[in-house]
Amino acid sequence: MPVPQPSEFDQVGFGISAFVELLKNVFEIAAIGAGAIWTYFNFFKGRTYRPRLECKVDGSVETHSGRSLMKVVVRAKNVGLSKVSIEQRGTILQVYPAVTQGSSPSFPCQVMWGDKPAVFDVFKDHAWVEPSEPVEDQVLIELPDNKAPAYKLNLKVLSKKISWTARNIVSSSEKRRTNGGTHDEGAGSDASGFE
C-alpha cells in the first residue's frame, strides 16, 4: 500500500513547527547560559555573599574609689548576606599605652605607642554573626597607678582567613565619680595628662 504524500499545507505546517521547536531550544539554552553567568558573577565574583563585618571600638576612663578603670565596648555588625563565623583564637582587643617623652616637646610630634600591648579576649560568647546582626561585648580594665596619658585600642576579629580591625584612641583624662554625678578633672590637673 502506498504511503500518502503530505499536502503542501502539511509540509509548511511541519516546517514552521520544527522551526519554532528549534527557536525554543535555542532560547532555553541561552537562558540557562545567562543564568549560569549571572550566578557566577553574583555569587563567586561579586562581593554580595562575601563575609563582611563592620567593627567599632570605643572606650572611656573613669575613677572609682581612687582606681582608674577603662570601659571598652567592642561592636561588630554583619553587613553582608552570609553568616560570618568568629574564630575565638585570634579575635582580641589590644590596648597600647602612649609613650611620652621625658620633657614637653617644643613642636607637635606624633605620640609613640608601647611595643607590648595588654591583650583581652572578646566575643567569647559569639561563634558566628548572622546577616544584619549586631553583636557587642564589653571589657572593664583596671589601669595602673602610673597610667599613660592615652591608650590606643585595637580590635581584631578573625574569621577563617579574613580579619577585620577597628582602632580608637582614648584619653585617660578622668571623669571622677562623685555623689552629685561626674565631672572632668581636666588634662592639666593630672601629672600624667596632656600639657
Keywords:
195 residues; 2 domains; 5-stranded mixed sheet; 5-stranded antiparallel sheet
Task: Report what the structure shows.
This protein has one helix at residues 8-45; strands at 53-64, 67-78, 84-85, 92-99, 112-113, 118-121, 128-129, 134-142, 150-159, 162-171, 175-178, 181-184. Strands 8-2-1-11-12 form a five-stranded mixed β-sheet, with no helix packed on it. Strands 4, 5, 6, 9 and 10 form a five-stranded antiparallel β-sheet that branches. The chain folds into two domains: 1-46; 53-189, Immunoglobulin-like. The chain has one helix and twelve strands. The chain is of the alpha+beta class and 195 residues long. It starts with 7 loop residues before the first helix and ends in an 11-residue tail after the last strand. The longest helix has 38 residues, at 8-45. The protein is rod-shaped.
Instruction: Estimate what percentage of residues fall within beta strands.
Output: 35-45%
Q: Based on CA inertia axes, which overall geometry fits? A: rod-shaped
Assembly type of the chains comes to single chain
Number of helices: 1
Write down the CATH class of the largest domain.
Answer: Mainly Beta
So, CATH architecture of the largest domain? Sandwich
Strand order of the largest sheet: 8-2-1-11-12
Q: Could you name the ranges where pLDDT drops below 50 across 5 or more consecutive residues?
A: 176-195
Helix content: 10-25%
How many strands, which pairing sense, and closed or not: the largest β-sheet?
5 strands, mixed
